[in-house]
Design brief:
alpha/beta; Urease, subunit C, domain 1; TIM Barrel; five-stranded mixed beta sheet; four-stranded mixed beta sheet; globular; binds zinc ion
Amino acid sequence: MAYRKFTADYIFTGTNMLYRNQVLITSEQGVIEAIVPLAEAGEDVEKLEGILSPGFINCHCHLELSHMKGVIPNRTGLVSFLIAVTQQRQASEEEILKAIRLAEQELYQSGTMAVGDICNTTHAAPIKHKSAMAYYNFIESLGFAAGKSKGRFLLAQQVFNQYNSLLPQYTAAIVPHAPYSVREEMFALINAQAAGKTIAIHNQESPDENMLYQNGNGDFNRLYQSLHTDSSGFTPSGKTSLQTYLPWLEQAAAIMLVHNTFIQQEDIDHTKLPQYQHQDIYFCLCPNANLYIEGTMPPFNLLRKNNCTIVLGTDSYSSNWSLNMLDEIKRVQHESAFSIPTAEILQWATINGAKALQLDDQLGSFEKGKTPGVVLIDNLVNQSITTKSAAKRII
Ligand SMILES: [Zn+2]
């Protein structure tokens, strides 16, 4: 059997950074065989400069919004952003498909191996079918209007059924869009189908989300007016959004909280209560999207201090300048003043993401028998990724 052998300045395994003189051995098809010392690797070792990493896992994207690149201005705040997306997401099918195709290529070429993709339509399904990447399809259910939860959930269920027949090789799950767009009745319908699944939800992306649940105030009332949504009958719980809805998702095997820009210590404490012990909770950060929409950063160090399991995503082209995971890694480094070890951020972008998307049996780390892809990150200074660094797919 023919092998490929690679050595580089560093090999990141998915959990650890190995230094010089280690060799990654794969089959021709990219199945991981072993990591051995250079002295034992024999001949034909390809020498590369930079970090070799397993392929990236982009835990949060909306491929079907790829045609919105550059459409919405930066830093409008979340509610104005959402109104703009609702008003401007329409486009011809041809335009939508072309943009999804380009986005899929960009993701693949920049080293992504799997995508947690939010779906409201089946537009991306044929492209995913031919794609070399894996997917976890989060079928989004939303609709805050009084008395409309069941009807809106059934619409999501139709898309869910289509995904199961078009892409049976990938898991699909019906998920709530966000606490401000889903009521308790819809959470109950979603929860009833959540067993064994990872459920993703946009969480605490603006301070107004907590205000809505704590006292019924805040900017979301402007959203409901603009969309002519009948928000009557909604009763604030007096608690933050996360502390209100998390008990409503108790059937899910895992919960992926996306954004967390305004999460606080008391919310993190809540996720550690014994009632959630049976669930894995992932904190998905999309720092460039937060910068784009709100001009803010998620609290990296608060989450790290509490040993939260962090994963990364790019979000969509409606709120980002690229779908390149390395741009998110660079943003984390930059915004944390290079205080977070490179290996730790790479773990967020690889094995943690693979676990969140239930794809860690094949992806996310250089373990024997897996096919995680091999990515080279070049132009380092010491062990740090620089603004000049690029991620290049080797396998
Ligand atoms: Zn999103």
